[in-house]
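README, section 4: Worked example with a bound small molecule

Sections 1 through 3 covered apo chains. Here we extend the same pipeline to holo records, where the ligand is supplied as SMILES alongside the sequence. The molecule in this example is pyridoxal-5'-phosphate. Nothing else about the input changes; the structure line simply encodes the ligand pose together with the chain.
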Amino acid sequence: MKGKPAISPAYMTATYKFDSSDDLIDVVQSQEGYIYSRWDNPSVKEVEEAVAHLEGYECGIGFSSGMAAISTAVLSHICAGSRIVAMQEIYGGTYELFNDILPKLSVDTTLINCFDTGQLMAQIDKGLDILYLESPTNPLLRVVDIDPLVRSAKAKGAVIMMDNTFASPINQRPLDMGVDVVIHSATKYLGGHHDITAGLVCCNKAAHDKIWHYKKILGGVMDPMTAFLIMRGLRTLELRIARHNENAMKIARFLESHPKVKTTYYPGLESHPDHEVAKRQMKGFGGMLSFDVDGDFDQTKTVMDHLKLISLATSLGGVTSLANQPITNTHVALSPENRKKAGVSESLVRLSVGIEDADLLIQDLDQALAVALG
Ligand SMILES: *Cc1c(COP(=O)(O)O)cnc(C)c1O
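The generated complex, written as structure tokens:
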């Protein structure tokens, strides 16, 4: 029949059939072709190639979640006695991996405040196997000057890994900063619609072969339907990110001038401590921002409870806006002392700005602040 599907289907298949034993033997030996979907799947491959292309790397690998991507990428590059230096401000799940699990495998993980540059450099100079970075950080959107850290770690022969979830490949290109392995929670901007859980890694062929081997064994693979939905998300990624950037900037300006808001944290604001680094390192400032309400815990909770258009939820990076009070969920496990260090106050609100009409979002925030704080 003439006419082909314009869009690739979700290849919902666990395995692949062969016309002859010789064909099967050939694919197993050459690893060119499909054998079993825990190894490779055409729908997943399409996403892997698309995201690798966006990030500028040779290869991509799909995972069942951002944490599967992170844990598999890290495990494939270490053994007992390895040493990882990371920023303290990394994603909570990554922090737990480094703090609770890897030390049990005799892996030395050193977590340093990302703005204690002297200490970070000193730890890198001691020698390391992996330097693990994340920027902008959660929830204060601090932007880490990546370049000097990468240079020092490279001189020590380390593999540089970076979580690029918050920025997205449109706003930040870790490849240009010398990063070896880029990681995404595709649950966030890549998928973009709050309807899937997935992860991706982008890297060169040598790192790909290591990580792919571990993925195949550990088994945290992306499923074909999820891959189909990520492909759909990717078709609007650039447009979505442009709107996320624009909306977040408008809302940040509104909050910054609001009498009931103490501080607004958005790298696009001139008042942000890392604005200059962000201008140099990022192509857009992103859709994430945080702010401190001029009130106590209960008043902040009241703001949360009166948002109408913006949903009270954890997660980020989707078309609809989400807000949360980090102290009640994402940062609940931190001790009061560590919370203070991380800048997570009782009145802090994190906002994942969606692509709705910015004026409606501003109205929503304005009325909720008015109910809580008069
Ligand atoms: C959400 C998130 C992760 C974890 O991704 P999951 O898909 O939830 O496993 C990792 N890093 C960052 C920065 C995230 O926001």
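What to look for in the output: The chain is about 40% helix and 15% strand. The pocket of pyridoxal-5'-phosphate is lined by residues 65-67, 91, 93, 163, 165-166, 185, 187-188, 197, 199 (CB under 6 Å).

Section 5 describes how to batch many such records.
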